[in-house]
Amino acid sequence: MQFSDALQRDITETVRFALAEDIGSGDITAQLIPAEHTATARIITRENAVICGVNWVNEVFQQIDNSITVTWHIADGDYVTANSVLFELSGPARALLTGERTALNFLQLLSGTATICKHYSDLVAHTDVRLLDTRKTIPGLRTAQKYAVTCGGCHNHRIGLYDAFLIKENHIAACGGIAAAILAARDIAPLKPVEVEVENLTELDIALEGNADIIMLDNFSLEDMREGVARTAGRAKLEASGNVSTQTLAAIAETGVDFISIGALTKHAQAIDLSMRFV
User: Fold this and answer.
1) What residues are labeled active site?
2) Domain check: are 86 and 107 in the same one?
3) Under the phi-then-psi rule, with left for phi > 0, alpha for psi from -120 to 50, and beta for the rest, what region is 236?
4) In sequence order, what are the residues at sequence separation of 6 or more whose Cβ sits closer than 8 angstroms to the Cβ of residue 177?
5) pLDDT tens for residues 144-203?
6) Number of independent structural domains in the chain
7) How far is CA 212 from CA 45, 104, 207, 215, 256, in A?
8) Same domain, yes or no: 175 and 105
9) 66: CATH
10) pLDDT, tens only, 30-57
11) What CATH number is attached to the domain comprising 220?
12) Do 52 and 147 touch, CB atoms closer than 8 A?
């Protein structure tokens, strides 16, 4: 996902909601500190990571108190080692403490997403395959996580239900077959990409005959994937899905498929351990 005005608007709204959720009627603990007291803080990572979330952190402190200065030592997509200083803050002590957890929540989750994506992308760097995310994201953080995916070297599938067709088993059954579903999709939105999920080589042939743009090979064996690539011969893009893990990923990529979709890129992300300390 490219950083855009639309993404920035999403960041503004997401941060506003997150701050309201945390602060509520006011940060009563921060009131223990004199209002005039200022401070400087450093944020470090406790583990190796690919960092993502700079704009979310900036927005948190901008909304809390725009007098706060945020000085970054890294950029989104940078790989850092444990105990690296990521950024420094200076400004009213109350405001720094009030924004700490919300800012780090965004940064730790998005960095965790970017880090796992980097791990997966490194495993297939010797191939031309593109690793795709899915819609298995944390509710309310769809665009944030999809941005993090790109910072880790992977790629976005469709953003939601509106920007491309993905015709799966239940859609096919309800439409009366693969060919009928493709025709209906072309009629509804002729300019939208049409992807169809197939479960065997016979269904692959039907999807090819129907001129699907992308065909998802669902839980195919490696042998059938290779056969599918040979049969397709470039007439459509092929996406492998199902039973994808770090142990199976390279072998799937080596079959020659164009894409591999992996729900784990977003739904299995483990937050990076971060810490803020006054100096």
Assistant:
1) 101, 136, 168, 197, 218
2) yes
3) beta
4) 206
5) 999 999 999 999 999 999 999 999 999 999 999 999 999 999 999 999 999 999 999 999
6) 2
7) 45, 43, 6, 7, 18
8) no
9) 3.90.1170.20
10) 999 999 999 999 999 999 999 999 999 9
11) 3.20.20.70
12) yes
3-state per-residue secondary structure call for 173-215: HHHCCHHHHHHHHHHHCCCCCEEEEECCHHHHHHHHHCCCCEE
This prediction's pTM: 0.94
Binding residue positions for substrate: 101, 134-136, 158, 168, 197, 218, 241-243, 262-264
Whether residue 109 sits in one domain with residue 189: no
Length of the chain as a residue count: 279
Q: State whether 235 and 273 are in the same domain.
A: no
Reported as a single tens digit per residue, the pLDDT across 74-95 is 999 999 999 999 999 999 999 9
pLDDT at 30: 95
Shared-domain flag, residues 83 and 182: no
Domain that holds residue 176: 155-261
Is pLDDT at 23 greater than 80 in this prediction? yes
Task: Quickly count: other Cβ atoms within 10 Å of residue 174's Cβ.
Answer: 10
Beta strand extents in 83-229 (DSSP E only): 85-92, 130-132, 165-167, 194-198, 214-218
Q: Is residue 141 situated within a structural domain?
A: no
